[in-house]
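@channel sequence for tomorrow's demo:
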Amino acid sequence: MNRPKRLFVFDGSALAYRSHFAFLKNPLINSAGVDTSATFGFTRDLLRVLDEEQPELAAVVFDVSKRTFRHDRFPEYKATRQRMPEELAAALGTLDRIVDAFNLPRLGIEGYEGDDLMATLARMGTEAGLEVYLVTGDKDFCQVVSEQVKVYNPWRSRGTQPMVMTPADVLAKYDVPPERFRDYLALVGDASDNVPGVPGIGPKRAAELLNAFGSLDALLERSAEVTRPALREALEAHREQALLSRELVAFDEHAPLDVELEELERAEPDRAALVELFAELEFKEFLRRFSLSVDTDPHVHHRVDADGLDALIEDLRAAGSFVFDLETTSLRPEEAEIVGMAFAYSRGEAYYVPAVESTSTGGAFELFSFKLDFAPLLERLRPLLEDPSVEKGGQNVKYDTLVLAHHGVHVQGVTFDTLLESYLIDPAARTHGLDDLALRYLGYKKIATREVMGTGRGKRTMDKLRDEEILPYASEDADITLRLHQQFSRRMAEQPRLQELYRDVELPLMKLLGKMERRGIRVDTQALAELGVELRERIAQLSKEIYELAGEAINLSSPKQVGGLLFDRLKLHEVAGLKAKRTATGAYSTDAETLETLREHHPLVGKLLEHRGLEKLLGTYVDALPGLIGAKTGRVHTSFNQAVAATGRLSSSDPNLQNIPVRTAEGKRIRAAFVAGAEDWVLVAADYSQVELRILAHYSQDDALLEAFRADKDVHAATAASVFGVPFEEVTPELRGRAKAINFGIAYGMGAQRLARDTALSLEEARAFIENYFARFPGIKGYLEAQVQFARKFGYVETLLGRRRPLPDIRATRRLARSNAERMAINTPIQGSAADIIKIAMVRIDRRLAEADLDAHMLLQVHDELVFECPAAQREALVTLVREEMQSAFPLAVPLKVDVGYGRTWLQAH
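structure tokens (generated this afternoon):
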């Protein structure tokens, strides 16, 4: 006969507390100074139970609420408990991440203790015919012990078995059976929870009384029969206290858990997430266990001087494929000097070529000075690096090729980049840095940059290090990159569509982005200076007006002072009928979303939002852009980030051009400061029109949406006409605005609350509007439901080109996590496909420009827009070429439409 499946329910809060105090005398502190005692002990105990017992179902329960229904009955409940230790409180977020990475359901409900949830799961498991084990050291759980429910205490001495409490064990230890244990606790009380019990009655007397009378109710009813006067008087005097105590110790076995037992079935842990966590926490034992593979091959490093370089070049050419990696003096390619170059073509071996020392005539007090010079070696490497027939690659190759381009070498034949390979394989990973990839995929902890260069005041640049210090670090980087590429290649081969996306889109795009970064864009510093003066004047005026409204001058950059003003003094949350939102540290939240909910309740709030927006523009763009202008080029060279957003979208940094406001007057003035590079040149801006909605029409195949785009109608007006039941010609700007909000919001999983906030509709009006919208566009509703179902079935979603995004929380028991995953299931295919389409267009335009007789250059990619510059005389030819390639980038079920403009400034072109 098969044994029943087993459900193990972990008391997460108890595990965390026990682990923290177990290491109190000798806490575990990692190199970052973080106390990891609780997280280590928690992980060790969790793993040990899972390993030894191999349960089919499991869940971890935490206390998430300081107040419960028990406090309403007895305000002094748990009043004697000390505050949670700061080190343990700081670890709670990490404990959540550990449970999530193990793919274990993490449960907690406001207003209920974790004990109630555990008892509820025990009841559910029993009713389903499961064996239930409650993993805890809390004796209170003896009240739910039965033949199917047991208490599993994981803490024991090394080499001994865990203590499992059965009904017989409860009786043997406490002299009462489980069904009387609740009454037993009501009499004895519990000092740790401040449960009063009945004074004068201890464990022995409680057991005697209950065994004699059968239950607490019978005992109280027949208290006159108790022979000992002191006990009889205590029971009669504290009758209500005994009944209250029973209420306090009794579990609510019907807590509102939004979870089905099937959702508790064990799943494979997220090994990559665990490796990342254990590397961060420096848990080497766990790290070795969960690394995706453990690479134990040795690393052999060779130093190659000028005399041996030709032989190395011959070997690299004969190998046909190799990794290269530069060691430089700066992270900014245009400023970086080359200190050395590492190569690897055979697993386990790598070669480092250091720069040579050159001498130059010194100043008045020295005859000669020594300088590292890589130029002679680079000239000998040039034919190999510029040979397209020899495959080559590395980690974040864009940086290396940009540095080499600034030194006159234009690398050809790049066929792989482990940064991009990792990004495509796992786009949701928090980082794709080489150190993390080595740990995650090879189980190897490589030499950290800080170990070589130092930190803080003692930090040195690469050119100040000796060759023997750089050699193992640089060679290891090259060898690790080669090993990662070999593993990634095998994994990519298992997904042909992803491999095609990598080969045909992402790799060519990487080269193009390098060209765009190198070209840069001209900035009118005089226009920025004039705008800066105006912004400072407006900021000063706003500050004055805010101080007058507040009745005092406060630091507007201090969230603490702003929160005190808005919530303690003005009490705007009470005026708005809202609960004051707080941050994780307990401070009042004063973020933009919070302030927007208060805007209409006090004129100060709108001025504060404007003040913040202008301060951000001033610091991020107006004051910062002149300092980012390259000394040699006179242009700003933004960095395009290709491996950041899980949807596939590009981002930019130094400066971040994605966040320049489009509609505000100040944002337009900043765009006006980006100008063409010469007087007789122009900027050309090409912007996809409503590309995400067109993709939604393609996916949903909704007849009404398809017809609107195919007829080239104003889709927002057409939506408004359909939903509000008015003729197309009579759609007002207000109705069109509401339709536009929902049209775009659908792609982001917008709900009624968000729509109400964005359109000034009431919540009921917003709900009715959405309901009517789906009635008019049933294909869209069908698409949304189908995407969520697909994600639930397969655990991921993908774009039109096969870019995948894993959604591990799509089956989460936590409603918020599951809802977020469902939104991602809806919007990732739309946003990601829009990203894929503009990337295809970029690659094709770049190819066409290389073939055309045009001196035109792609400069920027911002959202759905591309910005170019060209001689004014070539504008029409460029516009025709760009429009053709953008509109034909992908065969959607509706036409892709592109709006193109031009002018001396970005504002004019846009």
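heads up for whoever presents: Residues 364-369 have pLDDT under 50 and may be disordered.
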